[in-house]
Amino acid sequence: MKDLWTSASQLETHGLCSRKWWFNYVKRLPTLPKTHFAFGTILHEVCERYLKADYLGCDESGNPVDLYPEGWQLKDDYELTPVEQSLVKSLVDRAIEEGILVRQGGEVEAEIKRKMADGIMYVGKIDHLCPDGIEDHKTTKSTRWALSPQALAKNKQVLLYAREWLERKREAGESIPEKVRLQHNVFIKDPEAPQVRKTVAYVEPSDIDNAWNNAIDQAKQMVLDRQVENWTEFSDPEAGACMKYGGCEFRSICGRRESMERYVSRLESVKNRTPQPSFFEKVQSRQAHSNENQMALKKRIAERARPFVQINTPVEPEDVDGESAEEPSQQLPPWASAGCVVCSKTTPGFNSSGKFCRACLSKTDFDVSEVEVVTVDNQLRWATPLGVRGTVKLVDEVKAAKPSIFEKPTVVDEASVEDEAPQSVVGTIVHDMPPLPPDYKPRKKRKSRAKNPLPEPDVDPNLDFEENDDDDEPFEVPEDETDFNGVDIGDMDFSVNVIKRSSRKLPKTHRKPAGRPPAGPKLLIGVMPVKGIPPTRIQLAQTVLQKFGDMLAKHKNVPSYYSLPAYERRSALAMQAAVIADAIGTDYVMVTNPDNPDIESLVSALIPFCQLVFSR
Predict the structure, then answer these.
(1) Which residue has the higher pLDDT, 283 or 504?
(2) Helix, coil or strand: residue 219
(3) What CA–CA distance (Å, rounded) separates 231 from 235?
(4) Burial tier of 140 (Cβ tally within 10 Å: 0-12, 13-18, 19+)
(5) Whole-angstrom Cα distance, residue 72 to residue 67?
(6) CB atoms < 10 A from the CB of 493, how many?
(7) How far apart are CA 387 and CA 234, in angstroms?
(8) d(C-alpha 341, C-alpha 458), whole Å
(9) 432-448 burial string, b = 16+ CB within 10 Å, else e?
(10) What does the alpha-carbon distance between residue 538 and residue 536 come to, in Å, rounded to a whole number?
(11) Phi, psi of 402 (to 5 degrees)
(12) Between the CA of residue 600 and those of 44, 256, 527, 592, what are the distances in Å?
């Protein structure tokens, strides 16, 4: 049997769930790549370049170190977006300015290769092996996931790193201090509020040796677990282990929804599928397409440009050598579409009312607000500010105007008309409206035929949300609701809006009692509620996500919740989890499709605030 090469991440995975470790490291089942790993790896590389430089910022050759060389934003097949690139630079600058990243000697990216027992080797890499302890860089979406000093002092990874620090001290014959410093440099990758903080803990060497001995015992058990033939021989993991760290990739196998062979086949088909462009790439493509259209339109206008002739008032054409002057040519207007089914066969660029054709305008970016249009001798004459002009002849069956039957005829004194000078008709279309009959009366608006309108539905004031049977219907919030749970949205430290409660004043019988706050919601993950629970107290996780997503999209000025990058929208869920749970109250939240990544993020964020969690 081959030797077991283990690491801190393997030991932590095995301690969390033996099945996950067996799937990942023994059977080596494939998994989909995660982009947030690339972000953390690239940030680690930038920190490594900074710490390896001397106090003057130069490398071993004496040349200045470039923290962001060409191609620094690339990792494997992933490239950081401009927002992520700016976020990495902002986080590193903050860490340097606040004295968290400090060049203090020691070894950067120190490699570990140490024998634990016969046939067992421990390998790893320490971010910064300092003279007085070890430092490890961590990236997270929220401070909520950062370890406290107490949790850091018990963390298996840093204790095993500290063991390497101790062994090097002992091998060099140096004195061992009473306390060893363990430090986490935490980079909060929130684009709206990036933060950098450090967590420091001091442990005794005896605690480090105990952690190493426990890791040896666990590694020996891993050697035995390698011989297991079927994952069903492992015991079930602890409650909540399947949802940690973004959720386990092999839940579909443990849930018996698919076999290992089907899982491998499905992932191979997903990897071979043509990658879809990201939201940022789609925006760039649309902008490039729009720029191409604008350039093509300018080129088209320049090719058709002629000296501009002022047509403020109709001018009779003058005879030149017995011939009439040339009339403006009948050419296709710049905003018109050659194959338009509405106007191409009659009046190109105009509809039957003599107005601009909406079908053509929907296919072009041309601005028609400054186009001058007049009617002269059964013709529509148009001219653009750039000098392009032309005429459109009106056919018999298409009239220059369709006067509204609700307009009353204007009575004009014939004597006053003869005295007045001709008026300019620039920008308008002249119509000859026939007079209406003297006994004409406009039709009255028809009233509703409903004799017995439906009564107003009764709404329970205790409910935080209204029932919505249609998951696709957008969740609209009245404009006058500007506070949620007594907190002004504008004063909150969050970067997104949250699901809002109604601001109406409840009767005394429905107001919350003073004292201890009510318990949180109850999660139903993959299970159905029993009889006796009112339907009004059961909400679907999809409905809660949709309501929150609609408000987040409105705040970010994007078309929909899924238009945002995955890390941004799921980070918003984690930041607002407490407020969302408070809005749900003590209702039941039923999760019917836990495999949806956004539903997983919502459930993971709500679990710490829930009163009870029911799962299969």
Answers:
(1) 283
(2) helix
(3) 9
(4) buried
(5) 8
(6) 7
(7) 81
(8) 51
(9) eeeeeeeeeeeeeeeee
(10) 6
(11) -120, 95
(12) 27, 19, 15, 11
Cα–Cα distance for residue pair 507/502, rounded to 1 Å? 13
Lowest mean pLDDT among 93-107, 156-170, 445-459, 563-577: 445-459
Tokens of 365: 């970016």
Distance CA(375)–CA(428), nearest Å, equals 8
* Identity at 453, one-letter amino acid code: P
- DSSP calls for 551-569: HHHHHHT-SSGGGS-HHHH
Token pair belonging to 508: 């005394």
CA distances in angstroms from 260 to 30, 33, 246, 257, 267, listed in the order given:
10, 18, 21, 10, 11
Contact 356, 350 (CB under 8 A): yes
CB 285 within 8 A of CB 277: yes
Token pair recorded at residue 534 = 């009112």
Q: How far apart are CA 126 and CA 158, in angstroms?
A: 9
* Nearest residue to 483 via CA among 515, 459, 505: 505
Q: What share of the chain is helix, strand, coil (3-state, %, to 5)?
A: 35, 15, 50
317-318-321-323 Cα dihedral, nearest 10 degrees: 20
Domains and CATH numbers, the chain: 4-236 (3.90.320.10), 307-313+327-402+425-431 (no CATH), 483-509+516-615 (no CATH)
Q: Which two tokens stand for residue 206?
A: 């005896």
What is the per-residue pLDDT across 291-320, written as a single tens digit (0 to 9) for each? 777 777 777 666 655 443 333 334 444 443
pLDDT at 534: 80
**70, two tokens:** 């060409």
Query: What's the rounded mean pLDDT across residues 157-176?
Result: 92
Whole-number Å distance between alpha carbons of 236 and 16: 11
Q: Do 130 and 51 touch, CB atoms closer than 8 A?
A: no
Cβ neighbours of 194 (radius 10 Å): 17
How far is 337 from 346, CA to CA, in rounded Å?
A: 13
Q: Which helix (H) or strand (E) element contains residue 612?
A: strand 612-615
Rounded distance between C-alpha atoms, residue 583 and residue 220, angstroms: 48
The tens digit of pLDDT for each residue in 378-393 reads 778 888 877 777 887 7
pTM of the model: 0.47
Residue with tokens 């200045």: 64
CB atoms within 10 A of CB 133: 22
- Bridge partner residues of 422 (DSSP): none
The SS3 of residue 5 is strand
